[in-house]
Amino acid sequence: MKVHRLIFLLLLFAYQVCCKTYVHIDYSLTVEVPSEYSVELLGRAFLMETNQMEPSFRVAVSVEPVIGKYSCSLQVFLGDVKVWNSGHYSHFYTSDKCALELTKDGDLRLKGSNDRIGWRTGTSGQGVERLEILKTGNLVLVDALNRIKWQSFNFPTDVMLWGQRLNVATRLTSFPTNSTAFYSFEIQHSKIALYLSSGKWNYSYWEFQPTKSRNITFIELGSKGLEIFNDKYKKIAQISSFGTQFQPLRFLALGNKTGNMGLYFYSPEKRSFEAAFQALNTTCDLPLACRPYGICTLSNACSCIRLLTAKKGAGSDCNGGFSEGFCDKGQPEMLELSGVSSVLRTAPKRVNVSKETCENLCLQDCKCAAALYSAGKDGTSSRECFTYGLVSGVKQVERGTGLTFMVKVPNGTRVSHGKSNVKKWVLVMVGVIDGLIILLVLGGLGYCLVQRRRRRRRNMLASDNNNT
Predict the structure, then answer these.
(1) pLDDT 10s digits, 141-186
(2) Does a cis peptide bond (omega within 30 degrees of 0) precede residue 55?
(3) What is the pTM of this model?
(4) What is d(CA 322, CA 328) in angstroms, rounded to the nearest whole number?
(5) Residue 162, phi then psi, degrees to nearest 5
(6) Which end of the chain is more exposed for a tag (fewer CB within 10 A), N or C?
(7) Which residues of 18-53 are buried (b: 16+ CB within 10 A; e: fewer)?
(8) What SS3 class is residue 355?
(9) Which positions carry the signal peptide feature in this UniProt record (predicted)?
């Protein structure tokens, strides 16, 4: 209780006196870490703030609960939105204390118990005079001549601020909760794209390419959109905000829940940030819209691929029967799903091959979980085979697209008479949610009609009684 109160006092103190935009060398600030873990506890001491209209940028030393431990980090906020975090890629876990220190020789450090250093800028001996937060949100270490020796803009996390530039081969990343996969927003010479990465597999699920095959050198977030430039500093394309929006854009963010990329402005009326553009506008286009082995249906609801086996019957989870993998598990088989595709794309495993060859490519790789075969519309495009190490981003599509999605399933999915019921079972499960929704809608309409007729009959009886 005493420790909690100390953290509260630190927060209160920081809010009251935090008005400077800089601190000089030989500065330190400590946030106490409680001895008992609590998921509800958040210690945050603000040390700097920009002098500008709401929302302003603020810099804080933070202690946050992360999976049974406390993480110590230096963070930058725009209003209440975290736009930079020193612990984005690697948490610094500590106990007892979380201390920020700007040493006399110009090194910015985070230290824990026993003065253990968990993060540093490595700027000792470079003439650093102060740590400063600029009006752009860039956290910088500068010398006596205001020359920047270190800046947070060079270490992007999951947010890109107005005026910030990102060069080719740079990326933003975000990490979904309770998942080994992660999202990335990447700048490449030919395009900018969103990716889902899992192990050795890397899948794109959205991309933007400048016209006329022009190469990209860097991108910059402007007031009206994301601007794309070539090596001659000439703007060659722009992703603009949609609708009528009078406020300038403040940041680009890669969401850690959905993996969607958005451009955001601040609404003074709502006193919150609103999306002016989103790369993906429908639920089923999100890479993890449903659980693994789930299918996003045409009604934007999630269904499951469930196997019917002779030993276990129907699995209760979406990944029932799949979770153990296929390496050293005997010979599996491929299950073809009709009217189903994937939003995830990767480089083709093979081109100009048959569907049977595509099946075998996945069967021969024990880490392959699914395959997508593209015959091309009307059979005129090249025949391509894509393989996947996970079954995610699967969605129901209209027929006639020339796509065939196949899932690897274990042996033992056959029942009596040697006939497999898997395909029939899966097709039923894909459409079951849509069918239930239709039944609910029709049932609701029928109920309303019945109730209306009953009310009309009661009114007629009441009218007859009054007349008599």
Answers:
(1) 999 999 999 999 999 999 999 999 999 999 999 999 878 899 999 9
(2) yes
(3) 0.82
(4) 13
(5) -55, 135
(6) C
(7) eeebbbebebebbbbbbeeeeeebebbbbbbbbeee
(8) helix
(9) 1-19
